[in-house]
Design goal:
Elements: H1 2-24, H2 39-42, H3 44-55, E1 57-59, E2 65-67, E3 76-82, H4 87-104, E4 109-116, H5 119-129, E5 135-138, H6 142-147, E6 158-163, E7 168-173, H7 178-188
Helix pairs in contact: 4-7
């Protein structure tokens, strides 16, 4: 019996360690190279899926319905799917606020948060950290969209970088870093 428990514990630790290493690999930074439409931006099925999401009307925490497309930036829009219960999401949002206020809007980059969460915790968290960019609310089913773009685990945070024509040019599972945001701004100029 004791040997069985030890074997099960060792297996669980190995599985947990492997999952940790797999998740750790998702934080790799985006290259600072020129953004060009990626292969999936040319995939008509994926383009149609994202286009439907892009045009869908979602409510903000105040109850106003808007489409993500109506909020887009002049050159790029960073669409960030997040939740208040997601620690990496909570950690990256202050950087988004600072970046948007310092550089983003001047360079034509806008942020849109899509919260996979309930209205009350979202409104409370937005007020706590002083979110200055638009945030919309979506159902958990919005994560299904991310699976089409390589997010097999449907994990958060997940971001799309969308050009002015509405084409997805980059995706990122995990926190976006300041260097990655700077690369987006450089490519917007």
């Amino acid at each position: 019996m004791r040997q069985t428990i030890l074997i099960a514990l060792a297996g669980a630790l190995a599985l947990g360690g492997g999952a940790f290493l797999a998740m750790k690999g998702t934080d790799a930074p985006l290259p600072a190279a020129q953004f060009a439409p990626s292969a999936f931006a040319k995939d008509s099925e994926k383009s149609a899926i994202f286009s439907a999401f892009w045009q869908q009307k979602l409510e903000d925490p105040a109850g106003t319905a808007r489409s993500i497309a109506s909020i887009k930036g002049q050159k790029f829009t960073v669409v960030n799917l997040w939740a208040t219960w997601c620690t990496p999401c909570r950690e990256e949002m202050p950087e988004f606020i600072a970046f948007r206020n310092e550089i983003g809007l001047k360079s034509g980059v806008e942020f849109v948060g899509v919260a996979i969460d309930r209205k009350e915790p979202v409104a409370k968290f937005m007020k706590e950290i002083g979110v200055t960019y638009p945030v919309l609310l979506a159902e958990i089913s919005a994560l299904e969209l991310t699976k089409s773009f390589g997010n097999e685990r449907q994990a958060l945070p997940f971001s799309f970088v969308v050009d002015a024509s509405g084409n997805v040019v980059k995706t990122k599972l995990g926190k976006l870093t300041r260097d990655e945001l700077l690369a987006i701004a450089r490519n917007a100029q």
